[in-house]
Each structure stands twice: as C-alpha cells, then as structure tokens.
Amino acid sequence: MPDYQIKIVDAFTTRRYAGNPCGVVTRAEGLTDVQMQAIARELNLSETAFVTPSPRANFRVRFFTPQREIPLAGHPTIATMHTLVEEGRIDLSGGPARVVQELNIGVLPVDIALDAERNVRIVMTQAKPEFLRRLDRNVFAQALGLSPGDMLADVPAQVVSTGTPQAMVPVKSLDVLRRLQPNYQHLADLEGLGKYFSVHVFALDAFEPANRAHSRHFLASQGFEDPVTGSASGGMAAYLWKYGLVREHHYSVEQGHIMGRPGIVEIEVDGEGEEPDEVRIAGSAVTVLRGMITV
Known about the structure:
This protein is α+β, with helices and mostly antiparallel strands. The chain has helices spanning 33-43, 74-86, 137-143, 174-178, 184-194, 230-242; strands at residues 3-11, 20-25, 48-52, 59-64, 69-70, 97-103, 106-114, 120-125, 130-135, 157-161, 165-170, 199-203, 214-219, 224-226, 250-255, 263-270, 278-283, 285-294.
C-alpha cells in the first residue's frame, strides 16, 4: 500500500490555528478519483487539494470537499501554492514568480512573492465574474433565522460565480451576522433548487476598521460553516462592484472572527464599467501538520 505525503495548511493567515485549514497532497500521481475523494473524506476539512503534472500548465490542481469535487477553490489555492514554495517546487530566489494552474474550469495564473515580512503572498486570478439568477431575500432571511428587515435594502440576493456558483446574501450589519441561526436543511434545499454550491452572507462593516466587509459562509449540504472562503470572497467582490457598494480596486475583507478563526482576504478588482472585468484574491498561509497517509 503506497504512502503519500500530506500537509494541513492554514490559509489567509500567518498565525497557526487561524484562517481556514486545507489538506494538500502535492505529489498525487497515481491516486484515482475514488482515492482522492476518500482522502478528502478522511481529513474532513472543507477542501483537500491534489497536485499532479499538467501538459498545459505548471501544475494540475484538483479540489475535493468531503462529499465531491469542485471546480475552483480559493483557500486551497493559497494553501497549495504556499506548500509548493515550501517544498522548493516554486522558486522565489530570483524574485516574484507567476505560475499557471490547470483547474477543471481551465487554466488560470497565480502570482507569488515574498512580502515585507518575508511571508509568501499568493495572488489568485479567478474566472470572469458571472451574475446568475436572483434569489428571494425573504426566503433566505427565514433560512438564516433573520427577519426580512435584517437584509440589506435595495440590492438582491443573487448567485455569482468567479469559478464556483455561490449565493451572495447581503445583510445590514455585523450585529446581524452575529445573530445568524442557519437552518442547514433549509439552506441545503435552497442550494439544490438554485443549483449553486454554498451561501455567502456579508455585511459592510467589520471587526477591524481597515477592512471593507465581514462575511460568513455556509456549506449547507455538508452541514458546516467555512472559516475563510477565497472563491466566495472573489464572488462577493464582483457583487460589491456591480451594485456600487465598493468600487475600490484594492481593499481587504475579513471572515472567521465569529468562529474564532480570523482571516484576511485581500481583494484586487479590474474594471471601469458596471461589471468588473477580473477579480483576484490574495493571502498568505502557514503549515500546521506534516505527515503521511496510506492508500
């Protein structure tokens, strides 16, 4: 029975046991889809990333939740690239580097550099934003244990994708976010009807005044809250731009504080019109576990 090196990496933080943990297998050659899914289920983290060679890019990267494979994921990209730098497979000795990862949705670039404190900073370009179906805000209020008056007025709840379709649900304040009492079965039923992956609830205030928003993220079909979500932060940034809530090109948002796993996601948005042309998310990571897993 072969053994595979595996790591657990906390993304969107430089402090261990904060941010969002991710499993990473950087030499996954030989693993079948069934085995990758079994490893992700065994780790039982929100995602586990598997790296193999690619004929089209520097690396082929696949992302699995404990239940299924997903096309794009933010915090696993941050965790994976951090690990590849740590293992010497991405070389920063000559300065910043750009690598290309092949995902299920296509080929996307990742820019990597050392920041002023010598942390590895990873910038992930996401897929072109898509604004999909609008959703009933009152139904989401009920599913989240809120009243309709807790929802942010004059903007919709809407499915947005920058690679993974997710429901964007704006609420009035950080206090509303604290009071959420999600009904996971109700949210899971809505996921199935709406054909999106998860629910991202956010407000335009934050624990740290330097940040432009705070969010919470629910993977209802899996029955848990995700600490810090990169893909949804990108979708949220696209949403904030489209509806004129944040029209800045560079800013930061926060997530995980209410769960005791605070993380910061840096946002970069390109565009001048009503819809952004491109969204990038950035952050750092720290390794917390190194070991072997037997298949």
